[in-house]
Automatic annotation (TrEMBL):
Keywords: DNA-binding, Metal-binding, Nucleus, Repeat, Transcription, Transcription regulation, Zinc, Zinc-finger. GO terms for cellular component: nucleus. This is C2H2-type domain-containing protein. The lineage of its organism: Eukaryota, Metazoa, Chordata, Craniata, Vertebrata. The keyword Nucleus applies. SUPFAM superfamilies: beta-beta-alpha zinc fingers (SSF57667). InterPro entries: Znf_C2H2-type, Znf_C2H2_sf, Znf_C2H2_type. May be involved in transcriptional regulation. Gene3D superfamilies: Classic Zinc Finger (3.30.160.60). Belongs to the krueppel C2H2-type zinc-finger protein family.
Length: 358
């Protein structure tokens, strides 16, 4: 009898405590325990209609293969916590390993080295993707055109070329982009931000790719060679445009007159003939032009011609703009130049080839 009394006395106490809110840690344990044993009641089978051994998370509607995976997934959905905070910048993460990867940005630690080129990376996954450059492996193929890629993210962005999807919209001008990285670079047009500076001349750029191409001006590197004529270029896009000279390909057609062009930039400039758009204004006289760049218009408004002698390194772009086979005096006179009558310190007429007199 005494054992029966001892058993019945704590019942009101337990019931009373059930009504109290649980501490956060205890509530998390209860959630985990519930998820792990969610499907053990034989009278109420878990996930009716699913094949045996498959567990459906009711919150995320994901199918899991084990009870343990279901428990972890439900805990993520129900808690939505990011308890691991970076001590440097305060950014939070759901797992300790993700925080560790992030902290290497601040410490500069790159523990995973490529055996081919000794380049180092923060994570094993980044190293794996990099190694595909050496191996040539491209395991992700497009189902539409069969083009292959080194990583799944590149394939996802490429597939948007076929679907036309552009999910990233600029808040400044509502222009849309296929990738978040493209949007980030575009937004710097509005903000004026140019975070990538050249260590040689200090010129700044919106993207790392633009800086890399610019640095080749200093190094003289031209890693992209034409297979037809051997001519080399600083960037891949310049090589592609050049190759169209050999193939005759002109994939960009004008919707007004159907004239075709090798590059999108050429088409854009041409279309301004139809629209009348002249977006580039001269800072000296506010005259407007269809394309950007130095022109004889700017030269004619500057100081006397002696400043632009071929002996001066700054005159190269000026000479490049002059008509081939004519001296600077002849060229400027033919265009009504106010300085055409000046006596110029130039004794020879220059051809397109460097320092080669006609």
């Amino acid at each position: 009898m005494s054992s029966g009394i001892a058993f019945e006395e704590p019942v009101p106490y337990v019931q009373e405590n059930i009504m109290k809110p649980l501490p956060v840690r205890q509530e998390e344990i209860m959630i985990n325990d519930e998820a792990l044993h969610f499907s053990e009641n034989p009278e109420e089978p878990e996930n009716p209609g699913l094949s045996s051994g498959t567990f459906l998370c009711p919150e995320s509607e994901k199918c899991l293969s084990t009870n343990g995976s279901l428990g972890k997934q439900r805990r993520k959905c129900l808690t939505r916590e990011k308890p691991f905070a970076c001590s440097e910048c305060g950014k939070c993460f759901k797992s300790k390993i993700n925080l560790t990867f992030h902290e290497r940005i601040h410490t500069g630690e790159n523990p995973f080295a490529c055996s081919e080129c000794d380049k180092c990376f923060r994570t094993k996954a980044e190293l794996t993707v990099h190694e595909r450059i050496h191996s040539g492996e491209k395991p992700f193929a497009c189902s539409e055109c069969e083009k292959c890629f080194k990583r799944k993210g590149e394939l996802t962005i490429h597939e948007r070329l076929h679907t036309g999807e552009k999910p990233f919209a600029c808040s400044g001008c509502e222009k849309c982009f296929k990738a978040k990285g493209e949007l980030t670079v575009h937004e710097r047009i509005h903000t004026g931000e140019k975070p990538y500076a050249c260590s040689e001349c200090g010129k700044c750029f919106k993207s790392k790719g633009e800086l890399t191409i610019h640095e080749r001006l200093h190094t003289g590197e031209k890693p992209f060679a034409c297979s037809e004529c051997g001519k080399c270029f600083k960037s891949k896009i310049n090589l592609i445009l050049h190759e169209r000279i050999h193939t005759g390909e002109k994939p960009f057609a004008c919707s007004e007159c159907e004239k075709c062009f090798k590059g999108k930039g050429e088409l854009t400039i041409h279309e301004r003939l139809h629209t009348g758009e002249k977006p580039f204004a001269c800072s000296e006289c506010e005259k407007c032009f269809k394309r950007k760049g130095r022109s004889l218009h700017v030269i004619r408004l500057r100081e006397p011609w002696q400043k632009y002698s071929p002996l001066c390194p700054g005159s190269r772009s000026v000479l490049a703009s002059l008509k081939i086979g004519r001296s600077p005096t002849q060229c400027l006179k033919g265009r009504g130049d106010p300085f055409g009558s000046l006596s110029l310190p130039i004794g020879r007429v220059y051809s397109k080839k460097k320092n080669a007199p006609l």
